[in-house]
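Entry:
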Amino acid sequence: DSVAALLAASPDSGADALLSIDIGIANNKWPGWNVEPVPVPPQALAPYFSSEDPAISGAACRIMAAMMNSLPSAAILHDFRPFIALGLHHASITLRKLSLAQLARCCESVDLVIELTHSTFFKEVAAALGDEDTGVGMQAQQLFRLIARSPEGRNALLMAHNFAALRDVCARSVPRLRVLELLVDLACADGSLLANPEVAVMLRQAGSVQDVLEAVNGIALLATLAAVPHGLHFLRVAGVLAEFFGVLTGPRDGIEAMLVPGLYQFIG
């Protein structure tokens, strides 16, 4: 409570207290207090996350990270839900990354993975795939990879409402590419995913979109899938190989002509 009072006292004294705590963390001690670690209420830090002074906002994020890292991962989902929700939507890139990093810690436990995939956080992490910051989007993608490490996580990922959340973010090209990258990685490791009708549809259409750059990226991903026997079998049965050979051997429109170099690389 004394820490919260100091932080809330005034903008100047609160900022000074914040910076002192941050320095204390860096030196493995909390200066001015005899209790270690000092419980800093997340709500006392909240006003500082949006500070225009990067030293202040950075200190607030580091203090929150230190507090959360000192706790068992279960506490993240159970005791820090409001903060995680705040962080995922915050203007601060650092705070968005911090929330995703803390959710990633929950993937150490299958039970917590199941809890995470049944929470509202799943849809919010799916939305983060399309974050304007590339680092945030890639971190969200990595979180889904961690979720899918276990069979339970993969099954949860493919549940109707969860897969719908992934499909919904695919209206834009960047998150769609990240979803496709994720699905190709998972399908290469576990061919049973290709039996899922929705996964099959998304992969089958990866190289058939009208945007040339996106289609080229999709073809490159399908080449990765074709490098494993079950992936090549899927592409053959799904008619993707025949479609690509048709583009190479038949008359081409302008878009198809631009795909030819990528298709030759796919065959090679």
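The longest helix spans residues 173-189.
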